[in-house]
Amino acid sequence: MKLSFTLNDRPTEVQVDTGDEPLLWILRDTLSLKGTKFGCGKAACGACTLLVDGEAVRSCSYAVKFAEGKSITTIEGLGSEENPHPVQQAWIEEIVPQCGYCQPGFMMATAALLDKIPNPTDDDIDQNIINICRCGTYYRMRKAIHRAAELSRTNPAGK
Amino acid sequence: MSDNDQPKAAPTSAPTTSRRKFIVRGAIGSIGVLALGTYVFRNPIRRKILGMVETTVPPYMGSGTEPNLWFEITKDNGVILHSPKVEMGQGTFTGFAQMVADELDVSIAQIQVVAAATDTGIVDNTGTGGSLSVASLWVPLRELAATMREMLKIEAANKLGVALGDLSTKDGIISGGGSSLSYADIALTKSAAGVTAWTIPKTPKLRALGDYKHIGSPTPRIDLVPKVFGHPIFGMDAEMPGMLYAVVIRPEHVGASFKSADTRKADSMPGVVKVLQMDDWVGVIAETHTQALRAQREITVDWEIPKIWTETGIRELLQVGNGTEMVTQKEGDALDPEDKNTVSLAFSSPIGAHAQIEPNGAVASVKDGKATIILSTQVIGITQKLVAKALGFKTEKVNIIPTFLGGGFGRRLNTNHAIQAAQMSEAVGKPVKYFFTRKEEFQHDLFRPPTHHIMRGRLSEDKRLDSIEHHYASGDVAINSVMLPAVANKILGTDFGAMRGGNIQYDRIPNHRSVQWHTTLPFATSWWRSLGLLANTFAIESFVDEMAIKAGKDPVTFRLEQIGHDDIGQRLKAVIQKAADEAGYTDEAGSTNIVGKENQTDRAMGLAASVDAGAPCAHVVEVTIKNGAIRVEKVTCVFDCGIAVNPDQVRAQCEGCIVMGISASLHEKMTLIDGQLFPTIYGPYDMALMRHTPKEIDIHLIQGADKPLPVGEPPLGPIAAAIGNAVRRITGQRLTDLPMRVS
Hints:
The complex is a heterodimer. Chain A has six helices and five strands, in the order E-E-H-E-E-E-H-H-H-H-H. Chain A is α+β, with helices and mostly antiparallel strands. Chain A folds into two domains: about 1-75, Roll (Ubiquitin-like (UB roll)); about 80-155, [2Fe-2S]-binding domain (DNA polymerase, domain 1, Orthogonal Bundle). Chain A has a five-stranded mixed β-sheet with strand order 2-1-5-3-4, sandwiched between helices. The longest helix of chain A has 17 residues, at about 140-155. The radius of gyration of chain A is 15 Å and the shape is globular. Chain B is of the alpha+beta class. Helix content of chain B is about 30%, strand content about 20%. Chain B is globular. Chains A and B meet through helix 3, helix 4, helix 5 and helix 6 of A and helix 7, helix 9 and helix 18 of B.
């Protein structure tokens, strides 16, 4: 079966077996975008978080057929080295990553959070950022989330 | 990864001058050498060796020799360091870049660090672990960089016709006599004989610490860009052309072995290329991962399950008094447990999972008598040898290409699954990518062993500890590991991994001893960040705190007056005192707050300290209890890490250890139910999240040694006891079992 969606602002068509395949594997293995990570396959860790029509979605448990006609943003489309998203800029300034594996999922979840709550309180962060980081970078992440909110305010034109 | 087009400075023929090797067989190696005659070693001698193993930093034991194997000069005047150690988040690559920059005279931006493939010749024969990467390469890597700099200068002197002494180096440019050449000009010009033919000079004297620009300065991680923009840098991201996807079926029951499998239905399912039945496992190889998983569900395996293990069964097996006994510390007399003045308390810790987010896996290609394997591993050389043995290949026919690791924590000190990936590739004649499902990760982890501890102590009339004893039982940590020859265990008579933090650090207590009881459990247990340190420090430092309360003394003074006056004792005292001062420690012992009242928040501080690998660390935690939930609000951490090569990443390691320690103290636990290990997924395997992380972490680094010490594990030691000690002051309850809960 053939599916069409927008992927990081580009129209994309993909051939799949049944449409029940997790979106994660179509992105990683068929479309070769490796930034979205596999952690658990049960939507329990958040490593595979990406945006579907602006909503944070755990793509390991999201059948690809549901992406039909929608707009998907992955870490590769969030920002670029030349024009980083405020979340990425803040992650760099606060030197958040350690091993780095879970970080794309956290950055995507944060981008979705800031879209809804531009100035999140610590409680907002605690309730909405529920991915798992085994290196324990939460302490710097919290700082980076506040910093990203600040960057978005001062540079609303930034992507 | 390096660009294949770039000319390498690596030698194609033997260098003209043979050089002394940077390898000195160290602590663990020496013990191997001692093996021949050591069965007669008596316990006091063993204890001395154990003391050495616990506190010394073994030198780098890799096989690299020549600077020009380690460093590759690129056309754009960059330097690629082929690192024998891998990057798993601990910041080693950045530390190495700082060390290279300061001796090779290049900027950080000019340096790229990649994990060396075994084909480069930079093979690490031990692995990346023990928080030893920067500590063990502190001298050799700077010497290699300085030697490389001198080699380039000697060649520049020849080319420019300028005396060596008149040349200066900066940012990869050599200048003198009004001319200059870049390192790339020198290393890559066709007319030059090439770096390989150059004489390797005598190792230059290293610069003084104060002359370094990068070492000692907070430096942003050099891997921020790939990690923030989602570059494919992990083992899970690796691909090979024409690659197939595989899953392996593993038993759900502890101790189960493979009997037979019915694969008829799976054989003909869409996308399935082969269902491979080996002696003790079944692999499914398909065109996509989803297809492999679908086929796996249709396979029925008959398992031999000799025994249905339960949690109670494990606890009966694992207790003080069972297994192999080894006295690891002995001063003065033993306590009489029946004496009415002897205080006894039992402690325990559960089975712990590594739970690193990147699953284990490997991409393997076995073809024409050669194997290439890309994977996340902490043991590159060992994995190479094991794969070669399994395939019947010579070691050099197997090339292991390590990637960035999506977390290590000790889990990847055994990556034997590379063998299965290789065997499946061999069976289908194509590259195969194989990785664990999360259920496999949780049920087939090499767990942190559960522990059981009995602490005993007695106060003297002047309210000091007159005696203290730590009796502890643990499963394997170092014993049965692929990293050590079995003989090492026989010589040591104990599991030195389980022993970490197990000895009493209060030398002025006249009678003190530590006794290990070792038992191999029916499931694999192994290295988990900080090894025995977490559970042992929990038991000892909780008990010492309890005895301080019994003595009616504040726990700071009570500790300080019983610590020895030697160097390590002075440094331990310094971190405890500073932690208490910085946190404004107040001892609330004896207060009677009541828990359970609606919306009442109770608060107290707790203090604990430990010395691991010669690096003392003290934490003061501020804990609140609200509606029965323990929360860590603030941690003041004082850590004597010696020279902090990158203070920012030492802090990051402290923060990481604190969060992982809180997770182990208050959340994590694997349990055996009807023969199976549970849970098998995050969530039910409860871990610390953002909302459990302290909002304040105040870190103070002390340089109490003239070299870098291991930093990735020591700060894990005191966290559990510090939390328990705070809870004791709120509730009056002494919590003795991890994960801690208030009842």
